[in-house]
């Protein structure tokens, strides 16, 4: 596949920059499907901010590496097994688009034991 230089606009500074054929070839070899949205200097600034713990987009709160995360309480939802009618609980919100089974019926439908490495799975 042949590549040609492209002029793109940086989303941070608004300046035009050239996405060279060589860069495009590199991106393709790495399996990247999106073109860069930042010019090289804004990319470098963003990388240096990230590595120094600088400003972020605040998508998620930053957690301290010294404090362990608080264990999250396990939430269960009451459902009726679609196979045997027994009331049971599941660790996800049933959408109603697929049948939900109790642990015993689920194991039977899967073909028996819950085998595999790591021991038995938790029963809900």
Record keyword descriptors for this entry.
124 residues; alpha+beta; 2 domains; two-stranded antiparallel ribbon; two-stranded antiparallel sheet; 4 strands; 24% helix; elongated
Structural commentary:
The protein folds into 2 domains: 6-51, no CATH class; 74-124, no CATH class. 3% of the residues are buried. The chain has 3 helices and 4 strands, in the order ββααββα. Helices cover 24% and strands 13% of the residues. It has helices at residues 21-30, 40-51, 103-110, and strands spanning 6-9, 16-19, 77-80, 87-90. The radius of gyration is 25 Å and the shape is elongated. It has a two-stranded antiparallel sheet with strand order 1-2. Strands 3-4 form a two-stranded antiparallel sheet. A hairpin with a 6-residue loop joins strand 3 and strand 4 (87-90). The chain is α+β, with helices and mostly antiparallel strands and 124 residues long.
Question: How would you briefly describe this protein structure?
Answer:
The chain is α+β, with helices and mostly antiparallel strands. The chain is built from three helices and four strands, in the order E-E-H-H-E-E-H.
The description of the largest β-sheet is: 2 strands, antiparallel
What is the element string, with H for helices and E for strands? EEHHEEH
The tally of beta strands, per DSSP, is 4
Spatial strand sequence of the major β-sheet: 1-2
Low-confidence region ranges: 115-119
What number of domains?
2
User: How large is the count of helical segments?
Assistant: 3
Structural class: alpha+beta
Q: Which percent band covers the strand fraction?
A: 5-15%
Helix content: 10-25%
């Amino acid at each position: 596949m042949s590549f040609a230089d492209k002029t793109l606009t940086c989303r941070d500074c608004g300046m035009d920059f050239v996405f060279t054929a060589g860069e495009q070839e590199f991106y393709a070899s790495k399996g990247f499907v999106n073109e860069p949205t930042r010019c090289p200097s804004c990319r470098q600034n963003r990388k240096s901010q990230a590595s120094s713990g600088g400003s972020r987009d605040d998508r998620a709160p930053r957690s301290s590496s010294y404090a362990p995360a608080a264990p999250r309480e396990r939430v269960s939802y009451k459902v009726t097994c679609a196979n045997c009618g027994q009331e049971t609980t599941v660790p996800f919100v049933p959408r109603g688009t697929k049948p939900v089974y109790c642990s015993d019926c689920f194991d039977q439908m899967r073909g028996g034991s819950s085998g595999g490495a790591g021991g038995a799975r938790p029963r809900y």
